[in-house]
Amino acid sequence: MKKIVKSGPASVELAEVAEPAVSAVPAYWAEACKHLVKKDRVMKRLIPRFGDACLQSRGDAFSTLARSIVGQQISVKAAQTVWHRFEALPRKMTPAHVLKLKVDDMRAAGLSARKVEYLVDLAIHFDAGTVHVKDWQAMDDEAIIAELIAIRGIGRWTAEMFLIFYLMRPNVLPLDDVGLINGISQNYFSGESVSRSDAREVAAAWAPYCSVATWYIWRSLDPLPVLGTET
């Protein structure tokens, strides 16, 4: 499986992923902020800086994951261009419609042969019901991750971003995210490099709201709001 390059805060890669059709705010957000301010000195400083801004979920599961695949290992601007060309091909962005597309047309939209394979595999999983979308709310995080990483082109980092930004799970700690590690380094260790173990130790005070703390760490690196879901 192809590794996803994570060159900076997740907000840089995720901001362009989701469509603005549906927007929701997590019900746990206010309680999470109270918890984090009480338990963590850095969160006590960071959270008030961003006012009422918070994580929001947009779009639908299939198109969110499809767009994450399209955007892998290319710039945000290039990903936008390719996505707009690709989404214009099917009558509707659904698994069934994507499976009817011709490979040559998908390649002409700017997709590599491998990304075409990934998108077809994603559509097959959704169309066949291999991913249990309707059951996700009742499933734990690791069970959902296991379903998602069985799809070609989706690794653990992408699955964790999906949990945070689409399913809005409150306690996801994406230790493979470069932005999170850099943010912990800057905010807790005066810029010194940190290990996954160091990050995990810092995050112990965040539970059960690691997703929320991670979002504020990203915001500390990139003041633009973090929207959407991706890769």
What can you see in these coordinates?
The chain has 231 residues and is an all-alpha fold. It folds into two domains: 10-57 and 172-221, Orthogonal Bundle (Endonuclease Iii, domain 2), CATH 1.10.1670.40; 61-165, Hypothetical protein, domain 2 (Endonuclease III, domain 1, Orthogonal Bundle), CATH 1.10.340.30. Helix content is 52%, strand content 0%. It is built from 13 helices and no strands. The protein has helices at 10-14, 29-39, 41-46, 61-70, 76-87, 95-99, 103-108, 113-128, 141-149, 156-165, 178-188, 196-203, 210-221.
| CATH 4th-level superfamily of the largest domain | Hypothetical protein, domain 2
The whole-number mean of residue pLDDT values reads 87
Q: What ranges have pLDDT less than 50 throughout 5 or more consecutive residues?
A: 1-22, 226-231
What is the CATH architecture annotation of the largest domain? Orthogonal Bundle
- DSSP summary: helix tally: 13
Quick rundown:
By secondary structure, this protein is mostly helical. It has helices at 10-14, 29-39, 41-46, 61-70, 76-87, 95-99, 103-108, 113-128, 141-149, 156-165, 178-188, 196-203, 210-221. Helix 9 crosses helix 10 (156-165) and helix 11 crosses helix 13 (210-221).
Keywords for this entry:
single chain, 231 residues, mainly alpha, Endonuclease Iii, domain 2, Endonuclease III, domain 1, 2 domains, 13 helices, 0% strand, disordered N terminus, disordered C terminus
List the helices and strands and how they pair.
Layout: H1 10-14, H2 29-39, H3 41-46, H4 61-70, H5 76-87, H6 95-99, H7 103-108, H8 113-128, H9 141-149, H10 156-165, H11 178-188, H12 196-203, H13 210-221
Helix pairs in contact: 4-8, 9-10, 11-13
